[in-house]
Design a protein that fits this description.
membrane, cell membrane, transmembrane, transmembrane helix, MetI-like fold, mainly alpha, 8 helices, AA_ABC_transptr_permease_3TM, 222 residues, 83% helix
């Protein structure tokens, strides 16, 4: 590799890292937090006896899981202005990613809740708890431990998926690399570099996931 390419790599490293820390990670955290709230709400409604809300949330999950995330982002950012709704790139990205996380994670949460033995419900009812109290105090804490590993995988996947926000002009890490490519004319070099940074971020998150799973395993065993 010649000196020019090495210099390009060195010069672009800090801007890419800054974009990752300042834009990619916050976007991931905000979207995941909102999406997780939506996922829990969706899961609870879908295991309830509320017929109309169940149909609405089932339709939401069906639409989001059945269409590409990139198409959803384009509809939100480029399509909605046609009906008078114009959103900033960050807002559009948060909405798109949150809806996606909510739909996919709701299946994880719902499966975790359903996996809790029925005896836990019956024991809760026997001490005078209502269904909502049993869900909040007994079922959800147990379901949380079950759902942590797949939800952690969902978050790691979300960090990678935020690169799609470049398509709606949000200045995250991949968008920054595209701009650098436009001035250096080194697409292979820059895209490999940003790929390595994504790999670094996801490796750190995977290590944190493994640590959390070990802690939860010890807690469950105790």
């Amino acid at each position: 590799m010649d000196e020019r390419k090495i210099q390009i790599l060195m010069d672009s490293l800090l801007p890419l890292l800054k974009a990752g820390v300042a834009f990619t990670i916050p976007l991931s955290l905000i979207s995941f937090a909102i999406g997780l709230i939506l996922a829990v709400l969706t899961a609870i409604v879908r295991i309830s006896s509320w017929r109309i809300p169940k149909l609405i949330f089932r339709f939401y999950v069906w639409v989001i899981r059945g269409t590409p995330l990139l198409v959803q982002l384009f509809i939100i950012f480029y399509g909605l202005p046609a009906i008078g709704i114009t959103l900033e790139p960050l807002t559009a990205a948060i909405i798109g990613f949150s809806l996606s996380v909510g739909a996919y994670s709701s299946e994880i949460v719902r499966a975790a809740i359903v996996s809790i033995p029925k005896g836990q419900w019956e024991a809760s009812f026997s001490v005078g708890m209502t269904r909502s109290q049993a869900l909040r105090r007994v079922i959800l804490p147990q379901a949380t431990r079950v759902s942590v590993p797949p939800l952690a995988n969902t978050f790691i996947g979300l960090v990678k998926d935020t690169s799609l926000a470049a398509s709606i002009t949000y200045m995250e890490m991949f968008r920054t690399s595209q701009q650098i490519v436009a001035t250096t004319y080194e697409p292979l070099l820059l895209f490999c570099e940003v790929g390595v940074i994504y790999l670094l971020f996801c490796s750190i998150l995977s290590a944190l996931q493994n640590y959390l799973e070990r802690r939860l395993a010890r807690y469950s065993a105790g």
